[in-house]
TrEMBL record:
UniProt keywords, alphabetically: Membrane, Transmembrane, Transmembrane helix
One term of GO molecular function: manganese ion transmembrane transporter activity
InterPro entries in alphabetical order: Ccc1_fam, Ferritin-like_SF, Ferritin_CCC1_N
CDD domains linked to this entry: Ferritin_CCC1_C (cd02431), Ferritin_CCC1_N (cd01044)
BP GO annotations: intracellular manganese ion homeostasis
Protein name according to UniProt: Rubrerythrin family protein
Keyword Coiled coil included in the entry's annotation: no
GO CC aspect terms: endomembrane system
Its membrane topology: Multi-pass membrane protein
The species this protein was found in: Candidatus Bipolaricaulis anaerobius
Localization (cell): Endomembrane system
Length: 288
């Protein structure tokens, strides 16, 4: 007879396993071909873990529906690999709890080995297009952040009108996005690598335009150009934080270090660009 407190811990583990089973089954329905097969294998493995634990607790537990929904939503928005690796990060956080009980329940040692080893090898089989074009997305987002934040700051002090700044930023951003997309197309075509030139250009252009819209929108919302600039810079930080989180998860990078690096580079270059523009306006006597 197991100790009641131990049974409760096993029930928590059970709930995690059955939740992950349903998550993988749901993700398999969103995938095709090899990806679907990989996810089905993961789902069956999690179901086997659940049944092994149930043999000790003699209970049937329900999955966490909200977690299933969130992981499926993440897969639709950011891709299958992102959702899977995000879930793996949560599993690594539960390894300590498993280790505490493993000495009392030998079956947990096998489950832990599966979670840390077998699943990792299966995830490597996931082949997803958007990850192959991650560098194109990074190029679009970073270039938009660096160029447009500096341009918007300069326009704000030069034009003193939210509408004019917003319109100027939008024109500048759209023109730059077309230029960046064309450059990425030519680059991918000349390299003759695995990336399709047209798709690489599309990823770059879409990422750039999305960032432009987010940064320019405040200038059509506020009458004060300075308030709009403050919100635009805050939006830039949000974009950096969100995109860094995505890259950190799918590339297994350290989030904090990568975030600090991206903020320093993007904001540093933007500030430097603004200062150069401001000095040139003063030197040429263009400022009022």
């Amino acid at each position: 007879m197991l100790d009641p407190s131990l049974v409760e811990k096993l029930v928590v583990f059970q709930r995690n396993e059955i939740t992950e089973h349903h998550v993988y089954r749901g993700l398999a329905r969103l995938a095709e071909g090899q990806n679907a097969a990989v996810l089905e294998r993961l789902a069956e493995e999690e179901l086997g873990h659940y049944r092994s634990l149930a043999s000790y607790t003699h209970r049937e537990v329900k999955p966490r529906r909200w977690r299933i929904f969130l992981y499926r939503l993440a897969a639709r928005v950011f891709g299958l690999t992102f959702a899977i690796k995000l879930m793996e990060a949560g599993e690594r956080g539960a390894e300590g709890a498993y280790a505490e009980v493993a000495g009392k329940i030998p079956e947990l040692e096998r489950i832990m080995a599966d979670e840390t080893g077998h699943e990792a090898s299966l995830v490597e089989l996931i082949d997803e297009e958007r990850l192959g074009y991650l560098s194109s997305m990074v190029l679009g987002v970073n270039d938009a952040l660096v160029e447009l934040t500096g341009a918007l700051a300069g326009f704000t002090f030069a034009l003193q009108s939210s509408r004019l700044v917003g319109l100027s930023g939008l024109i500048t951003g759209v023109a730059a996005s077309l230029s960046m997309a064309a450059s990425e197309y030519l680059s991918a075509k000349s390299e003759r690598g695995p990336k399709a030139p047209l798709r690489a250009a599309l990823y770059t252009g879409v990422a750039y335009v999305f960032t432009v819209i987010l940064l320019v929108f405040p200038f059509f919302l506020f009458s004060s150009p300075y308030a709009a600039l403050g919100l635009a810079l805050a939006d830039a930080l949000v974009v950096i934080a969100a995109f860094t989180f995505f890259m950190a998860v799918v590339r297994d990078l350290g989030y904090r270090r990568t975030l600090v690096e991206m903020v320093a580079i993007s904001m540093g270059v933007a500030l430097l660009s603004f200062l150069i523009g401001w000095l040139l306006r003063v030197a040429l006597g263009i400022e009022a």
